[in-house]
Amino acid sequence: MGQRSKIAVVGAVAVAAAAVVPARAAPACPASNPTVTVELNLVEPVLDNTLPQPKLQQLAGQHHHYGHTLGLYQAQLEVGWRARVRRSEEGREACAWVDEILITVAMPKRTIYIIRERRPGSCPYESVLAHERKHQATDEAVLAEYRPRLQRAAEEAAASLPRRGAPATQLTVPLAAAMKRAFAALTEARTERQSAIDTPAEYRRVRAVCG
Predict the structure, then answer these.
(1) Secondary structure tally for the chain: helices H, strands E
(2) 40-54, pLDDT tens digit by residue?
(3) Tag placement on the chain: N or C end, fewer CB within 10 Å?
(4) Is 13 in a helix, a strand, or coil?
(5) What is the pTM assigned to this prediction?
């Protein structure tokens, strides 16, 4: 029993081509007040009941510390973002601002393994499955909780960006740093909450369910 994760950060500094908008009245440079969208995409875990206990033990590796592995929740987490930068120019004056940010959080692959020796429909199988479902539910709860936090992190970072004469890199580097911190907080919270599920007491409880 336990959980194992693969974490990948994708497209962390993907910036759309800047749009040049001629300015006729040389207005004040607008602040970056982007539309921030956080897309959350989680697939349902696939149930795998094909591996014998030694094979599942090998798959779990260092992520399982207490006795024999009977089940395993495995998930792949991918996070990323991209921003669209707009510019306006009037003679030597230039403005740049971010008007759109898309943040993506996905788990494109999730699997719940239960050893082959425990057959579907039996009490031993269902007790292990219920434990692994706790890992699944924890992932879903953490990502739902951090969805608005990621949005706020992007909005706050955009609000502090320079306006006049800033090239695209001056806008995206602070955004990249803010997103890196936000993603790190997400993965840290997720790791802590997942680890809190796998305790000796919980494993004893699962094994005792069916007598």
Answers:
(1) 4, 6
(2) 999 999 999 999 999
(3) C
(4) coil
(5) 0.82
